[in-house]
Design a protein that fits this description.
- The protein has 262 residues and is an alpha+beta fold.
- 37% of the residues lie in helices and 19% in strands.
- The longest helix has 17 residues.
- It is flat.
- The N and C termini lie far apart (46 Å).
Length: 262
């Protein structure tokens, strides 16, 4: 197969080695239905990040534009962004995220930040100065609506803050992070690409202080979360990428606090 001819024998993928068997595994599990060119692009993306395709740190996502043409983008967690920045040797940390005024938003039962502003510190080797690079993410531009916005409604500052941080990191380290996006940044794009309205914000039932049986016909919070994640991690053929599902679930696991599962 032309796209993977260069991997017919174990060869370096940057500092990573990939075998022909692993190539087949990528095609059948990680990037199902990929064309030769899309597979090449995915391998290139992994090579320049120093990530093995089977590490499940980078997820290829295929969307279709208005003309029906396939377009590939890559998603990951904010942790990979941070490690990529640190790997440059020029990352000097960041300021606490600043939030705009808390405002009401449609049917959400709590106020949400109008915006989040993240500031990254980068060392300039030419001048010896520490440069501050900021970026701002606005709620109305990132909130994905009711269908994928469960965690956004539960932790609005944290979710929007991640988008702002990703924007600032990509702005501060464009050579390392250009073309790579976090899950949180792309949720709105995902729901729009599926033909759904972005402001469908019917709020799920609030969890009562005392556990009560779920009324017949009403879905539990866990069921709602499972449906959202399954939709988010869906391949074009309708099957679910369980590797991506597990990765996203791990990313949001910090929402379990004080022994309570949401």
């Amino acid at each position: 197969m032309e796209a993977v001819a260069e991997y017919k024998t174990p060869t370096p993928l940057g500092t990573i080695n990939i075998t022909p068997e692993q190539v087949d595994l990528v095609k059948s599990v990680v990037f199902k239905g990929a064309t030769d060119e899309e597979l090449k692009l995915f391998f290139f993306e992994c090579r320049r990040r120093g990530v093995h395709p089977l590490d499940r740190l980078i997820h290829p996502v295929v969307r279709k534009d208005k003309d029906g043409a396939r377009r590939v983008s890559f998603q990951t967690s904010i942790d990979l962004f941070r490690s990529e920045a640190e790997g440059t040797g020029e990352y000097r940390g960041q300021k606490d995220v600043e939030y705009g005024p808390m405002t009401e938003w449609d049917k959400i039962d709590k106020k949400v930040p109008e915006y989040a502003k993240a500031t990254i510190k980068r060392f300039d080797e030419h001048t010896g100065d520490i440069i501050e690079i900021s970026a701002t993410a606005y709620w109305e531009e990132y909130y994905p609506g009711e269908q994928l916005g469960f965690q956004w409604r539960k932790m609005p500052r944290l979710m929007l803050g991640k988008c702002a941080e990703a924007l600032a990191l990509r702005k501060a380290f464009p050579r390392k992070l250009a073309g790579l996006y976090t899950f949180e940044e792309m949720q709105l794009t995902d729901i729009i690409s599926q033909g759904k309205g972005k402001n469908s914000t019917t709020e799920p039932k609030r969890k009562s202080e005392q556990k009560e049986p779920t009324p017949e016909g009403e879905k539990s919070v866990k069921e709602k979360l499972h449906e959202e994640l399954s939709l988010y991690c869906q391949f074009e053929d309708g099957t679910v990428d369980m590797n991506m599902y597990a990765s996203v679930l791990k990313e949001i696991s910090h929402f379990e606090r004080d022994g309570k599962e949401y």
